[in-house]
Amino acid sequence: RATQYTCMLLSYLIERKAEKEKLVMKLKQLESSMSSGRKMFRLGNMVHALVAARRTTQLPDVVPRFCLTASNLTRALYFVCDTVLWLRSVGLQPDIDKPKWRNWATKCYYFSLLMNLARDWYEISWRLEQVVQEEKTKENFFWDKCNQELNSVKCESLHGFLLLLFQILKRHPPLLLDLVKNLCDLSGPLDTLGIYKTNPGVIGFCGVLSSLVGILTLVSPHLKLKQ
């Protein structure tokens, strides 16, 4: 995935430079190959998404339970569409309507990301509320090093809200990384669905950043936001 989006970003950056046509063509071919390979590697991921959905139905908190279950179910539908597109790309089902299935896949992926972002915002708002309550009662704060700074925060002002938000994300790296990854992943569906048009450079950069976050959470599992 990181290779695919790196090729997209590089080909966008150098496509207008003279005497780079062959390099751009090679990068685009590699990007296409990586995309096809990823579709093959994702075969069977629908089962994983359904298992994850079943697991998240057991969560005690209703909001994360709803958001994550809906996210996993729509992600499973995305993998179904993705498998159909793969069958067409390898020639097993050449009569498949590619634009229609691609549109369905993008919509499922888009809704899944929205549910993930809703869950992230719930986590943030819950921690915001806790800090505000602790300020009001003058009791224990989350961060001993930031007591003086937090005492000066007034959530009624935008500056105070942003400062408090920064402190929360700073003190909860898994939440920050999950938020960054979901926001970066959103660029592709927004462009494909025509909601917010960008360019391959932006999509490539966001894809690379999202992929690096994913690699980081694999290398260091404690940085992955727990369900």
Give a short summary of the structure.
Helices cover 76% and strands 0% of the residues.
Structural summary, described in words:
α1 runs antiparallel to α2 and α8 (about 175-185) runs antiparallel to α10. The chain is built from ten helices and no strands. Helix content is about 75%, strand content about 0%. The protein starts with a helix and ends in an 8-residue tail after the last helix. It is mainly alpha-helical. It has helices at about 1-15, 20-40, 45-55, 60-90, 100-135, 145-150, 160-170, 175-185, 185-190, 200-220. The protein has one domain (about 1-140, about 160-225). The protein is globular, with a radius of gyration of 21 Å. About 25% of the residues are buried.
Largest sheet, if any? none
Unreliable stretches: none
Broad structural category? mainly alpha
Share of helix, binned: over 70%
Q: What is the domain tally?
A: 1
Order of helices and strands: HHHHHHHHHH
Rg computed from alpha carbons, rounded to a whole number of angstroms: 21 Å
* β-sheet strand percentage: under 5%
- Envelope shape: globular
Number of helices: 10
Query: What is the mean pLDDT?
Result: 86
Q: Let me know the number of strands.
A: 0
Through-space gap between termini: 24 Å
Layout of helices and strands:
Layout: H1 2-14, H2 21-41, H3 45-56, H4 62-89, H5 98-137, H6 147-151, H7 158-171, H8 173-185, H9 187-192, H10 200-219
List keywords for this structure.
227 residues, membrane, peroxisome biogenesis, mainly alpha, transmembrane, single chain, Peroxisomal membrane protein 11A
